[in-house]
Amino acid sequence: MNDTPARLLVVDDEPDLRAMLQRFLGGHGHEVRTAADAAQMDRLLLRERFDLLVLDLMLPDEDGLAICRRLRAAGETLPILMLTARGEAIDRIVGLEMGADDYLPKPFNPRELLARVNAMLRRQAMTGRAPLGARAGSIRFGGYLLDPAARRLLRGDETVPLSAGEYALLHALASHAGRPLGRERLIELAYGPDHDAGERSIDVTMLRLRRLIEADPARPRWLQTVRGYGYVFAPDSGAASGEAGDASRGAGTNPGHAGGA
Fold first, then answer.
1. 32-63 tens-digit pLDDT
2. Which residues, as ranges, make up the DNA-binding region of this protein (predicted)?
């Protein structure tokens, strides 16, 4: 692994365990955030970028298996280490089938968890060093390369720091280049059909993306507004305008919505 601390998200409803893992993993060079349930986890994933998720199977609002299934269905590739008090082989198999990358039954030795976390991060780093040209689905625009295999955006050789929510929105738009997408559709594509994100969250995330990517966020070249409708990814557009017209290419605007973000 490189010298940059890995950013870990620990999701568990036991306060003492969360605190212990934050101290222990943090004491071994990782940056650790914690959440007590799926709702807190979702809010953190929308705002921040993480390298690995440590996820308890039994949570008060949504079980870990359902979370794994939901995240993978939404295109989330974040490595997931599942924790559970149930150690039966069938539970481990189901967890792995739902999208978990590794499985550790409770009670566990913190040093074993650390070893598994480090091993998963090493595997992720090795995958990330694969030649970019060999990765299917890469999208180039301007001086950027969006690499779905490594789940990152590159500006030349530099990784642009994106939160999970920012990456998900950019990937949803870029994979439908030239096609105007409404906010409801963007929520479904980026975060999953059952996600409770509001349409305003799309506008806020778009603001952040433009500040990171566009030379002039007020007049975006690639992340353009479709007035009264949503947004469109226009990598080949020569115009620097942030307005791509309305959904029907000529209908009226909707001044009441902050679509220009």
1. 999 999 999 988 887 777 889 999 988 999 98
2. 136-235
Q: Distance between CA 164 and CA 87 in Å, rounded?
A: 30
Q: What is the length of the chain?
A: 261
- Residues 102-120: tens digit of each pLDDT: 888 888 999 999 999 998 8
Domain(s) labelled CATH 1.10.10.10 in the chain stretch across 133-246
User: Around Cβ 184, how many Cβ atoms within 10 Å?
Assistant: 12
Going 208 to 212 to 213 to 214, the CA torsion angle's sign is: positive
Q: pTM for the full model?
A: 0.53
* Buried-exposed string 223-257: b where 16+ CB fall within 10 A, e elsewhere: bbbbbbbbbbbbbebeeeebebbbbeeeeeeeeeb
CATH class name, domain 133-246: mainly alpha
